[in-house]
Design the sequence.
């Protein structure tokens, strides 16, 4: 039965060209990030004062920056930062959202009311303002950024998981588990949660794109990943400062962000369509 | 009457949410390893322990947390948000007040633009589903949704500001000669400065809303009453614009309400890029300068703005949906 469901999932996914191209983009980017030391043509932090602000050429396909560093190499290493931040932040957000949503949906009553009120309140903060406030108190660093992005991005997942739990907890298989003497925790985590995993997976995939966008915006504003660590966001800060003389510093890092976020969004939407037969009809 | 009841209920729900917002802000304020109000003093080498204690007492930091929260909340209600740490020591509310109109203006303009473009785009995509137009707009939507707004801003500045020289790329109005301009010239000058910021701040919302509009429209077009309308022999235009569109627009109002935080959040980015003196830029500056009172004031004010935006969306929804009005009457 499981294989039948898998097969229908794959056939749905494969027939969606956008989803397949999303998967391809995501795979290639992960490979680039992993193999960065092997494929980067130069050391990303090697300063070369004889080749400052050179436009794209055969030797430097994406040009060089104000310190003569090779932009392509910095872009390749930047992929590591972006993906790392994206994955960890989404991991945190998904874990927090899943636990709170599951507890709210399963127990109901005042616990549910309290958690959902917290969700409503958190959603009132424009996320970037909240993140900036926290970062100002903590010090910008890649670790703080990941944790803060994660802790301000769990609300959507919590709502999703809660809704799944509300509809699943009355089903027969839950009743069967309860009759056979399973504890609440066991019912929650080993019986209901596996059945609620599909929408979480979709939300997490889409979340990676969002987290990468947030990280790059913060780094661009100077309160994210700090130079000299290359991040696509802080590379764009340099692009802005040299807008009039070096267009390549502005063009390529943004393109890298666009492609990455696009990849995760396409993959996420493709997963959603393939997992949910109702939306596939559209 | 039903509507008034609905409004009253909504306003009542705002109170616990507002308290929640202030509580979370207060928690954030106490995250710092030291105490935010004395961090400034920490950098002062001449600070003696006695002076530090006096400063703590002056800011009320020696009192229990609940008392501190109550004092802060009391001030907040009276819009007394303390004084800025910066050299001018001005009241925080004064700083926010003078910047608020610009941010609100740009956000309203963006919202107008989003509405004006996204809805026809979404409707057309849905009606001509599977056509070249639909595919094109789907691709554009995905790209628009994934493009970082600050990067788009840089590219537009590069193209229209640097290469073509058509549009100014920073500030709200020209630096030179602004004083001598006539009224309409000033308006034109403002408009020219606002084109790029408004464009940039609407891209994300535009992509999101047109996608949403498309699926909402597709959902409605599947309904039985649309088939009925067509079977009655109504012209297709009438079916789409009178029967389908009105119902498809309803959920879009909610989405617009939900997009308020993202729109306001975007102000930080485009205001700091285009050097626009709004609250987004103030937020950024206060983060860079560790100006904690301004930071906290900003955080609370923008979340209250979001709360109001959501309320407006709710009201819009209620006005548009007769079912809600009816519900209110049943309840009352």
Sequence:
């Amino acid at each position: 039965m499981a294989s039948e469901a898998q097969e229908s999932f794959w056939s749905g996914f494969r027939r969606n060209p956008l989803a397949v191209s999303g998967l391809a983009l995501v795979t290639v980017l992960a490979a680039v990030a992993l193999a960065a030391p092997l494929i980067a043509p130069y050391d990303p932090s090697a300063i070369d004062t004889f080749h400052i602000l050179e436009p794209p050429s055969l030797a430097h396909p994406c040009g060089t920056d104000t310190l003569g560093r090779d932009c392509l190499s910095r872009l390749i290493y930047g992929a590591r930062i972006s993906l790392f931040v994206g994955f960890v932040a989404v991991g945190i957000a998904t874990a927090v959202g899943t636990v709170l949503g599951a507890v709210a949906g399963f127990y109901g009553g005042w616990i549910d009311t309290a958690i959902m009120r917290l969700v409503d309140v958190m959603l009132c903060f424009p996320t970037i303002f909240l993140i900036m406030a926290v970062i100002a108190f903590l010090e910008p660093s890649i670790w703080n950024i990941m944790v803060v992005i994660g802790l301000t991005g769990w609300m959507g997942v919590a709502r999703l998981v809660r809704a799944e739990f509300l509809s699943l907890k009355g089903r027969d298989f839950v009743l069967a588990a309860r009759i056979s003497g399973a504890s609440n925790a066991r019912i929650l985590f080993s019986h209901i949660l596996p059945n609620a995993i599909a929408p979480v997976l979709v939300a997490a995939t889409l979340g990676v794109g969002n987290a990468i966008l947030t990280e790059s915006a913060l780094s661009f504003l100077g309160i994210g990943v700090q130079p000299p660590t290359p991040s696509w966001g802080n590379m764009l800060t340099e692009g802005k400062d040299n807008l009039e003389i070096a267009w390549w510093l502005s063009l390529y890092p943004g393109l890298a962000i666009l492609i990455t976020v696009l990849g995760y969004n396409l993959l996420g939407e493709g997963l959603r369509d393939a997992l949910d037969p109702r939306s596939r009809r559209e | 009457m039903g509507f008034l009841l609905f409004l009253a209920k909504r306003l009542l729900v705002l109170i616990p949410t507002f308290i929640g917002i202030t509580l979370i802000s207060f928690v954030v304020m106490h995250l710092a390893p030291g105490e935010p109000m004395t961090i400034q003093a920490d950098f002062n080498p001449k600070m003696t322990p006695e002076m530090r204690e006096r400063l703590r007492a002056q800011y009320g930091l020696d009192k229990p947390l609940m008392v501190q929260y109550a004092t802060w909340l009391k001030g907040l209600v009276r819009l007394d948000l303390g004084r800025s740490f910066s050299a001018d020591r001005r009241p925080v509310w004064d700083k926010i007040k003078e910047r608020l109109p610009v941010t609100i203006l740009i956000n309203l303009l963006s919202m107008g633009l989003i509405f004006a473009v996204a809805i026809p785009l979404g409707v057309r995509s849905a009606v001509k589903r599977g056509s070249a137009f639909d595919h094109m707009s789907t691709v554009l939507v995905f790209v628009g949704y994934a493009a970082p707004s600050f990067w788009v801003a840089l590219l537009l500045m590069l193209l229209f500001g640097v290469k073509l020289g058509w549009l100014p790329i920073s500030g709200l109005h020209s630096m030179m000669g602004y004083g001598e301009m006539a009224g309409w010239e000033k308006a034109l000058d403002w408009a020219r400065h606002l084109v790029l910021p408004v464009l940039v701040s609407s891209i994300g919302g535009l992509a999101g809303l047109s996608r949403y509009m498309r699926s909402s429209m597709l959902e409605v077009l599947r309904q039985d009453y649309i088939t009925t309308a067509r079977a009655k022999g109504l012209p297709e235009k009438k079916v789409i614009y009178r029967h389908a569109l009105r119902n498809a627009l309803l959920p879009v109002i909610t989405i617009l309400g939900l997009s308020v935080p993202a729109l306001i959040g975007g102000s930080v980015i485009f205001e700091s890029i285009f050097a626009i003196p709004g609250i987004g830029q103030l937020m950024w500056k206060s983060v860079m300068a560790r100006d904690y009172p301004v930071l906290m004031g900003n955080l609370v004010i923008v979340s209250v703005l979001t709360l109001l935006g959501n309320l407006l969306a709710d009201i819009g929804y209620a006005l548009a949906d007769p079912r809600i009005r009816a519900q209110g009457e049943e309840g009352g």
